[in-house]
Amino acid sequence: MVASLPESIVPDSSFRKQVERLSGRRVSACFQCEKCTNGCPLTFAMDIPPHKLIRLAHLGLKDTVLNSDTIWVCASCETCTTRCPNGIDIAHIMDILRQVSQREGIRASKKDVPVFHSTFIASMKRWGRVHEMEMAAMYTLKSAGLKGLMAQSKLGLEMFKKGKIKLLPYRLRPNSQVRNIFKNAGRKG
Amino acid sequence: MDVSYYPGCSLSGTARDYGESVEAVSGTLGVALKELPDWNCCGSSSAHVTNDELSVALAARNLEIADKIGKDVAVPCAMCYSRLKVAEKALLAGREIEGISHKYEGSIHVKHLVDFFWENVGEQAILEKVKKPLEGLNPVCYYGCLITRPPEITDAVNPEDPQSMDNILKTLGANVKNWSYKTDCCGGSLILTLPEIAHKLIQKLLDMSQEAGADCIVAACPMCHSNLDGWQKEISQETGRKYDIPIFYFTELMGLAFGDASVKKWLHRHGTDPIPFLHEKELL
Ligand code: SF4
Ligand code: SF4
């Protein structure tokens, strides 16, 4: 579904400046050629196509941008970034928008996506490496509840039989340098 | 030939078939894979959408370990490869990363395994090991997004039409088909969160491989492989069309052509069983 936009827009540069500072790229360089959108394989599931999202960020429509489906539907395939004639790293800007949206506590339009990422990061933080079985089970429990977990366990059993599930994490505690990386990033993030 | 090896989290779990085949064919080719000591997760598809600092620092720590050892690093996963390359470019640009004190100067190279095999090991060495050419096999090669994109990060010469996997498969004797979907996205990062969207992308790739006249797809990444391989039953149910297309890791097909005795064990782990297909082709 295409998002509806307000009829008149009063440009506000503060959001543009925030995005440009965090991404290190100028969204104002965009001349709306639509190359990003034409190559994007996910536009069919987006409410705002990438080139429009870039322009909305430029104009300062922070709420529209951060509440869009687009930022969560983007699969980070890097096609737009590769093709943009103005060197705008659109895929990275998508990352920045997702980060700002999470930091500001905005409820994601596709709520399971950030739940998945936080579960993944928690597993990384706990072990230093991702323990796939634990991560997938925790995510299913958080997004689909106990019933969902039970339904998933059939798939889990099938994978177990094929030897694709490792029961134990690689070590019991991540190395201290990895623990520090999480601490530093948490402080800055 | 020695090379540092960063396997990533999947290769001992959901991509055990890949991990085992990588080790076997490396052994045959005389490549000693030296796993980086105490490597950590590269941050994968989650750190970069959540926290920039974290995503660069996690990958940079692995580069620090590799740089101290001083050998090039071969990476079998496209996602890990991409994250390590992003960190490499950040370090080379002089970015200060808290917790990483080592000065990285770019004297080692990070390579995706498929490029390492083609460019560093080379055609001659691969050809010498072929015992059973893959005659009658008509694959398309699927590289996915991150082995080549964006080229400022990956240093890919031809990001929209890479050749290394095609060249390896041709060397093995396969009749490689051309298609324009080599680097299209399979939706791997969305498979657990927005599966209905990911299934559409997977279906497109399956359909296009058929249109190109291929009878199987070859992948070089655990995420791409599990995505194309693991959901064909569900997609068949959703669309009413029957999908039963074998998806191989390029290293499994190297093992097959090299006459490796473990091939069946790897293939047995797939979601879409490729064994009847290979029997039919008289390759197994
Ligand atoms: S490709 Fe670049 S310049 Fe063209 S519309 Fe997209 S962001 Fe703007
Ligand atoms: S990175 Fe996101 S916005 Fe860019 S082309 Fe891929 S899916 Fe579309």
Structure description:
The complex is a heterodimer of chains A (189) and B (284). Chain A is mostly helical and 189 residues long. In chain A, 60% of the residues lie in helices and 0% in strands. Chain A folds into 2 domains: 13-103, Orthogonal Bundle (Fumarate Reductase Iron-sulfur Protein, Chain B, domain 2), CATH 1.10.1060.10; 112-188, no CATH class. Chain A has helices at residues 13-23, 35-39, 50-59, 62-66, 70-73, 79-83, 90-103, 112-127, 132-161, 176-188. In chain A, helix 8 (112-127) crosses helix 9. Chain A is globular, with a radius of gyration of 19 Å. The model of chain A has no long low-confidence stretch (mean pLDDT 84). In chain B, strands 2-1-3-4 form a 4-stranded parallel beta sheet, with helices on both faces. In chain B, strands 5-6-7 form a 3-stranded parallel beta sheet, sandwiched between helices. Chain B is globular. By secondary structure, chain B is an alpha/beta fold. Chain B has helices at 16-28, 44-50, 52-69, 78-92, 113-121, 123-129, 151-154, 164-171, 195-211, 222-230, 232-239, 250-257, 263-267, 275-280; strands at 2-5, 32-35, 73-75, 110-112, 139-142, 216-219, 247-249. Chain B has 2 domains: 2-114, Glutathione S-transferase Yfyf (Class Pi), Chain A, domain 2; 131-280, Rossmann fold (3-Layer(aba) Sandwich).
